[in-house]
Structures are given as C-alpha cells and as structure tokens.
Amino acid sequence: MPFYAIIKKEIYRFSSIWVQTLIGPLTTALLYQLIFGHQFSSISTGIDGINYATFLIPGLIIMQVLLNAFGNGSSSLIQSKYSGNIIFILMAPVSQFSMYMAYLIASIIRGILVGAAVLIGIVWFGNLPFSHIWAIIYFAILGSAITGGLGLIGGIVCEKFDQLAGFQSFVMVPLIYLSGIFFNIQHFSDFWKSLAMLDPFLYIVDGFRYGFVGANNFAIEYGAIFVFVFAIIVNFVGYSLLRRGVKIKN
Amino acid sequence: MFALEINNVNKIYGNKFKALDNVNFRLAQGDFIGLLGVNGAGKTSLISSISGVNSFNGEIKVMGHDVLRDLVNAKKQLGVVPQELAFDPFLTVMQTLKFQSGLYGVSDNQAWIDELLERMHLTDKAHANTRSLSGGMKRRLMVAQALVHKPAVIILDEPTVGVDVEIRKNIWEFISKLHKEGHTILLTTHYLEEVEQLCNKIIMIDKGKVIAESSKQELIEKANGLPSSIEIETMDDKFTSELDGLVLSKSDNKYTLKLENNKSMMQILNTLTASGVVIENININRPKLEDIFLDYLGR
C-alpha cells in the first residue's frame, strides 16, 4: 500500500504539470521532426525502404522516453530533499526497496506515457511498419528503467538543482545525442563511431528502432541482454545509495 | 511492554560530532514526557534516531519493535512531527493527508481526517494547495500528518513554533485528549509552561547526555528546594536598612528580596511594618521549571 501511495502521488505530480511534462517534450519532438526531417530528407538511412523522416521517428520517441524517465526520478527526489518533505517518506513504514522501486516505476510510467504521446504526435510524418512490437515495449521499459535509475542516482547524490542540471547537460544529453537518435552510426566517422560504441544508450536506441523498422546495427539478442544487465547495474547502484542514505539521511 | 525503550544509544555524525552520548530511558505506555534541552542538546538527533531517519549505535524499541531489526513495524507505531517546516508543494491539504495515510497503509479514515482538519483549524483549507498556507497552518498540517494513522506513540518536536496562542491552546487540548485516550507522547518544546502543564515526566538532555529524568512531582519538590523571591512595592520608595542583606535587586519602588521559606516571609513583612514602611503590592516568585533546568545545567 505505501508502495502504491508513492507511485500514485508521483503520477499525480507529473500529470499536474502536464504542460511541462507532456506538451514540452511533444513540442520538442515535433520541432526536431519538422526541421531535421525536412532538412535531411535526402540522407540515406542505411535501411532499405526507410526514409529519413521515418528513421527519425523512433529516435525522437526514445529520446523523450529516456529524458523524461530521468527527469522524473531526479526532479522528484531533489525537490523533496529541497522542500524537506522527503522526511515524511523516510519516517513512514516503507522499506527502502519499496521506496526505490516506487520511484523507479513512476519514472518508467512517465517515460512510457510521454513516449506514447510523442508517438501519436509524430507518427504521421513517416511510414513505420511496427515490425517487432515486443522490442518497442522491451527497450522502452528497460531504457526508461536505466535513465530512471540514473535520475534517482542524480536525485540522491545531488544537493542542488544546478548540480543536477550539470549531470543532465554533461552526462545525459551527450550520451543521448551520441546514441544514433538522429543518424545511423554506420555513417559516423571512425572516431565518432568508436566513441558511440561505448555509449550504452546506443543499444537502447538501436533495439527500439528495430522494433519499429525491423532493421538494426547490432544483434538484437546481445542488445537486449546488454540493456537488461545495464538496467540491473544502474538500479543496484541507485538502490545501494538510497539504502545507505547517501545525502538523504543523517 | 514499554512504549519506548532507549538503551545505550550513541550517535556520532561524519564530522565526529557526538550528538548522543549513551542515552538511556524508558517510556511507559500512556506517559506524557517532556524532553527538554537547549538548542543542539541532541533532542532532534534522538528523535531522528527513534524514527529511523538517523543511523545510531545502541538499541531503540518502539512498542517492542526494534528500530534496527524491525524498522517497518516500529515506524507503524510512531507519529512524528518534525521540527523543520516541510510540505509537498504539489498537493493540497486533503491530498497531503490522504497520501500520508497511504504511506501508513490506511485507506478508510476520511472521518478521522475530517476531525483532524477541524481540530487543526484547517477545514476551510482542505482543498487549498500547501504552498498557499501560512507557516502556522503548515505546522498544524504537519501535526495532522503525524496523527493520520492514530499512532500509539506520538513524538512532537517543537510542534507549536510559529502557531498563535489560541490555536496553540487548541492543539494542546487535542494532544491532551489523545493522551487521555492512551497514546504515549514525547514532546520537545521551548514553552516550559506547556511542559509543566501537560507532562507527567520530564527528561533533560544536554550535550547528548540525559542529565535528569524524573516525574513532574519530583521536579516540583526539587523546585521547593530552590530559593524563591518576593517582590515588594513600597509607598514613597521607603524601605528599611535592616533587610538590606536580603535585597536581590531594586527597581524604582520595587524591591526583590531572597525568600527562604514562609517563615522568613512573615519576618520580612513584620520588619517592614514595624519600620513604618507602607506596602503597596506583594508578589511571590516561585522557582519555575526553567530555573530547575538551569540549575541542572549549572548555569
């Protein structure tokens, strides 16, 4: 019951500021789709039968899924720390595992809901075959679990909003932009391709796009396993930090 | 079973500051305890340890549940009003209380929430966002939050700071009612008259150590052992040099004299009368809890 109470409150929190949490990402995705989709329409995507506008759609959706899952956990925790109301959850009969999982699931829900809204908003710009629905769902959930976990780590560790903004600007955004959202990494130069291969988000984007267009750069099985393992590692670190009460307790 | 057991509790923060130094005490069920101490004495560290927010060494049991080994069940028995103002800016007053209920696994308590709102004078603010509340209202909401699951043990860390006199009185009436219904209450406050009025037992803490633990009656008896004083206003500022040795202070025509007992009071009055001094007003100052507290602290 306390577990559901936290999830319910988190859903209420982000839905009560829907202009910021829903319309904002949708507008950003629409702008990217309109400008990039038009400007680079002649670029080869490296996938037969898939033009650039269609190629771009899954990238923009998963970008907003990842960013919003990150934003939920991080902003919720740091706001609760800043306003002091986290004390009510810390004093409540909620195990730290339940507390962590409730925040994580709320982050995943926000990521998926925003992703669904962006999908509805921009799906009309291309011709997506929706080849593997399981991959769309799997990589969306696991991807938002990874960035949701990173958001919780940021929310736990950071003490100020500008520290969190720095984490987002210098870690999240470069990782997302390097993950092949806008272009196929096969078209990158060797240096950037080598760098992109180290980006864990690359495998999320690749698997998610595979779900929509049926083609990808890496074996889907390896991508699925890597993303699963990475999600476990990130969230184990996040849970361990919460359990130790780093920058939250004492 | 004790409502609260504190056994050999120590708390050292990362900067090596020892906030709690081998604290021991027990609260019987139904006790109303005043926990007194100056700022930084360790009161809030102790409360944070009891509520599982602080790590600590030692043993704390709430209604028999060990805070280190059975934290969830220990927390279910506790309702804590923290000292710092805290609120969720996304929620209304009603949503805050329903969310708090959810955190404690309580769902069918609308009647109790309505009563809490009424008692805390927040009924007309039930659907107002917490951001719009004044400091006093936020404090009252925090009291309501702590009581939403009807905890067996209620801990109030300076719950009436910033609350106006009338509503403070109302809150204390409500807390007294909860006490009469069997709840155990641990209170920290700077309003010592409230402790004198409400508590049946008092614990004094200084520099992380319990320096005194006794019933209110014992403290009152101790108070009787401390010197009192008598203030005497005389007409035309007349006085007698026979009593100069007892004068503690003088202001205009008001003399404050050391008073050992009732017998000495009669002697003072008789001496003044015999000297032709006309007394306009008399006021006897009995030692207060504050004096006893300062006496314990050696200040």
Helix-and-strand structural type of chain A: mainly alpha
Q: Mean of the pLDDT scores of chain B?
A: 87
Low-confidence stretches of chain B: none
Q: How many H/I helical runs of chain B?
A: 10
**Side-by-side strand order of the widest sheet of chain B:** 6-7-8-3-9-10
Distance between the termini of chain A: 26 Å
Q: Which value, in Å, is the CA radius of gyration of chain B?
A: 24 Å
CATH class of the largest domain in chain B: Alpha Beta
Which architecture of the largest domain in chain B would the CATH scheme give at its second level? 3-Layer(aba) Sandwich
Main sheet makeup of chain A: none
Largest interface pair: A-B, 28 and 34 residues
Count of runs of 4 or more consecutive helical residues of chain A: 10
Number of domains of chain B: 2
Please characterize this protein's 3D structure.
The complex is a heterodimer of chains A (250) and B (299). Chain A has one domain (2-244). In chain A, helix 6 packs antiparallel against helix 9 (200-213). Chain A is globular and about 55 Å long. With 250 residues, chain A is mostly helical. Chain A is 76% helix and 0% strand. Chain A has 10 helices and no strands. By secondary structure, chain B is an alpha/beta fold. Chain B has 2 domains: 4-222, P-loop containing nucleotide triphosphate hydrolases (Rossmann fold), CATH 3.40.50.300; 226-297, Alpha-Beta Plaits. Chain B is 34% helix and 28% strand. Chain B has 10 helices and 14 strands. In chain B, helix 3 (93-103) runs parallel beside helix 5. Chain B is elongated. Classes of the chains: A mainly alpha (250), B alpha/beta (299). Chains A and B meet through helix 1, helix 3 and helix 4 of A and helix 2 and helix 3 of B.
